[in-house]
Design brief:
It is found in: Membrane. The protein has eight helices and no strands. The protein is an all-alpha fold.
Length: 256
């Protein structure tokens, strides 16, 4: 049995701890990636959301979820790579895992930033939606399709015009019945631009928040992987040095 010093044993303890940490990070990252991907797919595939986005031609609201889908797909594969590298204690695979995780985290961060900037209230999407809906209100007087879109969204979302009922007044148009609450008969105060942003905000915010947590875990996993890689290399050097020392001592004993 090869000689093992206290230093090697102590390093083995720390290495084992970091291995367990890395296992934990990879498993949690895998679960979070699946959750984020599921939410992104839901935003893309849900019929109600899809119907609104198609009618408004607000396809930029899907860009963030698309980026996060790609990031999560990479994360699922990389998590398996991280577990494999940890089991085999391979410094090269750990380096590859660290670099791939860093690239994936950057992609995910871009997806989070874009989603938050184009999917929640008072983000860049709100004035875009307001202008788009105001344009549809203007066209609704002559275009049956625009009139249908405006009626449906005002009735289902509980809003009026792009920025409010004033849009109809500005174009000298009659304020439609859909701009009123069917129970109280009161006029809806808010326009459909901000209301649709409110409608999308919970989904986008939860998706982005979980994705941001995933990115934090990925950064921690990168640090753990680099420390583990360093420990593996140092352990190999220490064990190799002790084996050489033991061999040298044995040879000298025979010669004596």
């Amino acid at each position: 049995m090869p000689y093992r010093s206290n230093e090697v044993d102590e390093r083995n303890k720390w290495t084992t701890r970091f291995k367990y940490f890395l296992y934990f990070f990879n498993v949690v990252s895998l679960v979070l990636a699946i959750v984020v991907m599921t939410m992104a797919i839901y935003i893309r595939a849900d019929w109600t959301i899809k119907h609104y986005i198609y009618e408004l031609e607000a396809y930029l609201m899907w860009t963030g979820p698309y980026i996060l889908m790609a990031s999560c797909s990479f994360t699922i594969v990389i998590s398996a790579l991280g577990c494999w590298a940890t089991v085999y204690e391979n410094p090269f695979l750990l380096t590859a895992f660290t670099m791939a995780t860093g690239a994936t985290a950057l992609i995910g961060l871009g997806g989070v930033a874009y989603s938050l900037n184009h999917g929640i209230t008072f983000s860049d999407i709100t004035p875009w939606l307001t202008d788009r809906f105001t344009y549809l209100v203007f066209e609704s007087d002559t275009d049956p399709r625009s009139a249908r879109i405006v009626r449906i969204m005002q009735e289902e979302l509980g809003c009026c015009g792009g920025s409010g009922w004033q849009d109809y007044a500005n174009y000298n148009m009659e304020i439609p019945y859909e701009c009123r609450n069917p129970v109280t008969g009161n006029m809806y105060v808010y326009g459909c631009g901000i209301i649709f942003s409110d409608f999308m905000e919970p989904l986008v915010a939860w998706m982005s928040g979980i994705a941001l947590l995933l990115i934090v875990l990925q950064i921690m996993a990168m640090v753990a992987a680099m420390i583990l890689r360093r420990n593996f290399k140092r352990e190999d050097k220490l064990i190799s040095g002790h084996q050489k020392s033991a061999t040298y001592t044995a040879v000298r004993s025979r010669n004596i």
